[in-house]
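fyi for ur records
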Amino acid sequence: MTMEIGLVGLPNVGKSTLFNALTHAGALVASYPFTTIEPNVGVIAVPDPRLQVLGELIQPEELVPTTLRVVDIAGLVKGASQGEGLGNQFLGHIRNVDAIAMVVRCFEDDEIPHVTAELDPAGDIETIELELALADLATVERRLERAHTQAKGNPAAYAHEIAALESIKRRLEAGQPLRGASIPEDEAPLAQEMQLLTAKPRMYIANVSEGDLPAGGPLVEPVARIAAAEGASLAVVCAAIEAELVDSWDAEEAAAYLRELGLESSCLGRLVREGYRLLDLITFFTTVGAKIVRAWTLRRGQTVLEAAGKIHSDMQRGFIRAEVMAYDDLARLRSVAAARDHGLLRVEGRDYLVQDGDVLHIRFNV
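which gave:
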């Protein structure tokens, strides 16, 4: 599983600059709307210090991190759900992502025009949220029309779907997003199946000027209130500085400068942590002899049999058992042999629920 996060926002809020900082991909950045027409997609290694520790202990030929896909989606404008600014095309790009990171402009810069007369972060969020809701409403209405047509021949078979769709439609018309606890459990799978935009997990990224780091200036305050009201996470970043550090500084100097600014890590580290929290993901590790140590992403609550399937379908079909060590035990004892001698290498069956940091060796028949 590769987690995919979509960066959305109005034009000229710094999405492509942030994308470049995250991915080193060199996406085109310019101070005019719709610089990004086709979405930029970057596949980036997820930073995890545990992988480096395992490398020191096992001394493999190769360390392979798990990955994150970041999608920079073109700026949305008012009327996007009706096609303004190629909006329908852009909104379609969002439907495939696992979570949405809404980038909000919280910096003043006369050289980078804003799409509205005044800088209003709360108003910008409201504009994007409305367009996402209107796009969802159109999707639900089409599905509802189809369900009514199909129900003519067998009303009972479609009664539950129609009731759920009508309930979702009422929520959207009332301006209620579908994510989190605001949607009943029996309606959530349908919203997920339709890939409704307001049902996707959400985080906010306040893009500020360097002088407003680390907490952000007064323009961040309304964004923080909105995020708190939703129970969503908020990351305060300066995309311009992050991109400059990536382009011009070595890793140690960049980390030291971020600490001077009061930041514990780069925007990549913060985005990954929040993405994992939003989607309830964990990381497990595998070893192939002394050749490869690899990190993998899994949803919390999945079994070791499902983890085997992430590695290879043959491994899942021929699964026999899994040998499991906790990362913390291995890091503390400093060797696989010592973990085994202390009885900390366990044998688990196919129903074992994988824990974050588990180091797995899967036994299977070919």
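Confidence is low (pLDDT under 50) at residues 26-37, 83-87. thats all i got for now
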